[in-house]
Structure to design on (284 residues):
C-alpha cells in the first residue's frame, strides 16, 4: 500500500495522542477499530527514554509507549536485562491495546557508535521477542519524517548530540558527541545540591524551567559548540533540533545565538526519531 504524506506538525500532534507514558491504559483496547494491515514498528533505546511506536502500512501512527529508563549510556547498552524486560513489558502492553502481536521492528543508534554496540541494540529487541529488521542512525531516522532537503538535523538526546548534514535530501555527514539531557540533570543536581533523580524530575516541570535556565544554559552552549564544529565548512544554512532535550525552553534560541544559524524545533521532538525509526521497519 502507498505511504501517506502528512504535514509534519499535524503528524506529530496525532502521534502525541497515541504514544502514551508506559503504564497508562495498559491492557485497554483501542477505541477505534485496530489496523488490520501490516504494521511498522520502531524501538528507540535512548539514554533517558525507551520509546516504542507503531505505524500502520501507510505510516499513520496507531499506538506507542515511552518510559524513563537508564539502561543505555551514550549509545551503549549498559543494562541488557533491564532494557529487555522494559521493552518486553511495553510490547505486551501495546499488543493489548492493538489486539494483535508485534513481530518485527527497526531500531536506531547514535552516529559513531561501534558496530558491536549497534548489534547489542538489535540483541535487546530480539531478546524481547521481536525480530529486528534494520538499524539506522538516529538523525537519518529523523529525516525519514522531516524530509529536509538541505540543512542539518540535530538529535539532542539524553546522553549524546547527533548531527546529520543533509544535501539534496541525502545525508552526507553524521557525527555524535556526548552532551544531552543527562548533563542538564547533572548540572542542576550540582547547583542545587540535590540528587540526580530529583534533578531529572525538576527539569521536566514547566514552572521550574525559567529558574533553571541560567543553570543549564552552559550545556545548551556546549551543544551549540558541538554543532558549530561539525557544520563548519559544510553546506548548512539552517538547523532543526529533535530529541527530548531540545524541548527545554530557550534551547533553540541559545543554539541559534551560538551558531548564527536559523534554528527551529518541531512539536513533540521526543517522538521525531522513534517515528522515523519505525518508517525504517520493513514488512516485505
Amino acid at each position: 500500500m502507498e505511504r501517506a504524506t502528512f504535514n509534519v506538525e499535524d503528524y506529530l500532534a496525532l502521534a502525541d495522542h497515541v504514544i502514551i507514558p508506559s503504564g497508562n491504559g495498559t491492557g485497554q483496547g483501542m477505541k477505534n477499530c485496530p489496523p488490520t494491515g501490516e504494521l511498522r514498528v520502531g524501538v528507540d533505546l535512548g539514554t533517558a527514554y525507551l520509546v516504542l511506536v507503531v505505524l500502520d502500512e501507510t505510516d499513520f501512527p496507531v499506538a506507542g509507549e515511552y518510559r524513563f529508563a537508564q539502561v543505555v549510556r551514550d549509545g551503549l547498552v549498559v543494562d541488557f536485562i533491564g532494557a529487555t524486560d522494559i521493552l518486553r513489558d511495553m510490547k505486551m502492553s501495546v499488543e493489548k491495546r492493538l489486539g494483535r502481536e508485534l513481530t518485527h521492528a527497526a531500531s536506531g543508534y547514535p552516529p559513531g557508535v561501534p558496530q558491536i554496540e549497534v548489534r547489542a541494540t538489535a540483541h535487546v529487541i530480539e531478546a524481547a521477542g521481536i525480530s529486528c529488521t534494520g538499524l539506522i542512525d538516529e538523525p537519518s531516522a529523523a529525516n525519514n519524517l522531516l524530509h529536509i532537503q538541505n540543512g542539518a538535523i540535530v538529535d539532542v538526546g539524553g546522553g549524546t548530540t547527533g548531527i546529520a548534514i543533509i544535501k539534496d535530501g541525502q545525508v552526507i555527514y553524521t557525527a555524535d558527541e556526548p552532551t544531552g539531557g543527562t548533563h542538564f540533570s547533572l548540572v542542576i543536581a550540582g547547583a542545587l545540591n540535590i540528587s540526580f533523580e530529583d534533578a531529572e524530575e525538576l527539569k521536566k516541570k514547566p514552572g521550574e524551567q525559567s529558574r533553571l535556565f541560567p543553570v543549564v544554559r552552559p550545556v545548551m552552549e556546549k551543544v551549540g559548540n558541538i554543532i558549530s564544529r561539525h557544520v563548519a565548512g559544510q553546506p548548512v544554512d539552517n538547523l532543526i533540533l529533535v530529541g527530548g532535550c531540545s524541548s527545554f525552553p530557550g534551547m533553540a534560541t541559545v543554539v541559534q545565538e551560538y551558531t548564527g544559524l536559523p534554528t527551529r524545533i518541531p512539536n513533540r521532538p521526543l517522538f521525531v526519531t522513534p517515528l522515523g525509526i519505525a518508517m525504517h521497519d520493513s514488512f516485505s
